[in-house]
Amino acid sequence: MEKVRKKLIREKAVIAVYQYLLTNATEEEIENYLNNYYKPRMEAREVALCKTLVFNTISRIDEYKPLIQKHLKKGWTLERLSLMEKAILYVSIYELNDYSKEIVVNQAVELAKKYCDEDTYKFINGVLASID
After folding, report:
1. pLDDT value at 35 more than 50
2. What is the mean pLDDT of residues 37-55?
3. What confidence tier does 74 reach under pLDDT thresholds 50, 70, 90?
4. Which of 81-100 are b and which e, b meaning 16 or more Cβ less than 10 Å from the residue's Cβ?
5. What pLDDT band is residue 56 in, cutting at 50, 70 and 90?
6. Global model pTM greater than 0.85
7. Tell me, what DSSP letter sits at residue 73?
8. H-helix segments, the chain
9. 110 CB burial (10 A radius; 0-12, 13-18, 19+)
10. CA distances from 54 to 28, 30, 76, 77, 88 (A)
11. pLDDT tens readout for residues 87-112
12. Helix, strand, coil abundance in the chain, percent, nearest 5
């Protein structure tokens, strides 16, 4: 798959994880959302990859929470982060298993610049860069 489409899949996965965090949606609701909203805009293979990324990320969120907490600034808590910041971090941490840290961090920073507050990308970069 070409690079541009990987970026699209990652971005759509972050948005789906954000929706999950926002609404506490069930797996069936997420599946319906991905099928109804993404299928017209993405190839079937890309939708399948996006679903895999979303569901694997969601299934590991509880593993990722302490990892993120460990790398936050002193005095900060996970609850202080916005849902979009969490979604970006969760998807990115999952992707660290499959892609180089540099690629994952760069993509996360791009998403933070697009969807979060002005300086959030620095925070996202710092947290992901500190994860082994």
Report:
1. yes
2. 86
3. confident
4. beebbbbbbbbbbbbeeeee
5. very high
6. yes
7. P
8. 3-23, 27-33, 44-59, 61-70, 83-95, 101-115, 120-130
9. middle
10. 13, 9, 26, 24, 11
11. 999 999 999 998 999 999 999 999 99
12. 75, 0, 25
Residue with token string 């789906």: 16
**The token pair that represents 87 in the structure block:** 């979604």
SS3 103: helix
Q: What whole-number distance in Å separates Cα of residue 27 and Cα of residue 29?
A: 5
Instruction: Specify the pLDDT at position 32.
Output: 87
User: String of b and e for 47-74 (b: at least 16 CB within 10 Å)?
Assistant: bebbbebbbebbeebeebeeebeebbee
Question: Distance (Å, rounded) from C-alpha 52 to C-alpha 46?
Answer: 10
Query: What token pair was written down for 119?
Result: 């300086």
